[in-house]
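Sequence only, no structure available. Ideas?
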Amino acid sequence: MTAFDDLMAFQRETSALAQIAGRLGWDQETVMPRGAANQRAEEMAAIEAVLHARRSDPRVAEWLENAHADTEVGQAQLREIRRTYERTVKVPADLATAIARVTSAAQGKWARARADEDVAAFLPVLEEVVALRREEGAALAQGGDVYDALVEDYEPYTTAAQIGAIFDAMRPRLVALRAAVLDRPSPAGVTGTFDEAAQMKLTQKLAVTFGYDLNRGRVDKAVHPFSSGSGDDVRITTRTSETDPFNCFYSTIHEVGHACYEQGIDPAYALTPLGEGVSMGVHESQSRIYENQLGRSRAFTGWLFRQMTDTFGDFGIADEDAFYAAVNRVHNGYIRTEADEVQYNLHVMLRFDLERALMSGDLQVQDLEAAWNDRFHADFGYAVDKPSNGCLQDVHWSVGLFGYFPTYSLGNVYAGCLYQALRAAVPSLDDQLAQGDTSAATGWLREHVQQHGGLYAPRDVIRRVSGMEPGPEPLLAYLEDKFGTLYGL
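Reply:
I predicted one. Tokens follow.
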């Protein structure tokens, strides 16, 4: 065997172990007994120690030195293995293990604090998480920007300054659109109660409608919806509310976008660096285009209205046009995952600025709640009413995902570019969506984005498909056209 063959064999074993670690995380958020939290923290720490040792194994450096690849795929494999190796060796093994242990325990403490509306109960462990991630970022940055080093985990080859420039370009037009829309009468929303078992039955149908392969996946419930896994085992979660079925349905469609990306990757890349989505920004481009440009379109919501009428009977919406307006209703709210398309990115920008300040030391953990509440009031014009609607609403910081939040809005930006190209490529898109047929759209995305996995760098993925440098203009034009029409602006 060649050095390349030896390296890839070793990498496949490492990737398989990483998938096992991911399955432990899925279990922790879905069915793990609450009393198992401390033991699970030790299990996660143990497997992280094994993974860190493998990813920093000196043999990897030797294989990289001697491995050669003549194909585009082989060269991309070496590029990504080298990137991971060079990052891993900068982080001490005991630090990597400590992060895994503390973040596993912190997740359970966050969930309890959120349920109890008790910020003070969560802050001590968040202090630990922040300190550990600062230490990791400093080790990775080696004198450079700590937050940039952490962003690299989620959006390779991108800096906070680049992200900030995109957000600065977006904010004025988003704020202006939000003000104009909220100055108009708001359409009616759904009323009544919606059986949760019936919601889950319809949500399974939605998952399949958008191309999710349930033979290689499953749908469960969790406090915070997420997607987990790759290849032949890709699982999603959703959540239900008796009075808000859209929470369930659009969380599901969103997570199916993530899951279909993983299921759509070329099987030849399985258990290799190319066998997963290339970045969280590109991942979010899939979940957001599934959820919004497709799932919240006038065409598709007409089909969904008929499905909901068949399932729940009269639920207070007169017809398909009124339903489309209800699905896309712009209204005040606290929760990022429930935010409308106009305001969603403003929620992300808030988190981006706060976590940058946490990582730089400009914001201390004990001041986080006040900083969140002040910023929220400044951005949205009303006060946070309780911690679960404020700084305790998201799981991300408890599990140490600093640098992750901005990829949500990058995903929206990427989705705007992709949707512009998709509409040009599939002129009959609306006719098909009106019949509940997403196959042309999801097939196009699978062919042009999903099958490539990690083969191309994130921005190159979007550039190759859309023919443009990724930027916010297509997204902003889409939002202004859609909501300008809906609200008669």
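The first strand starts at residue 219 and ends at 221.
Hope that gets you unstuck.
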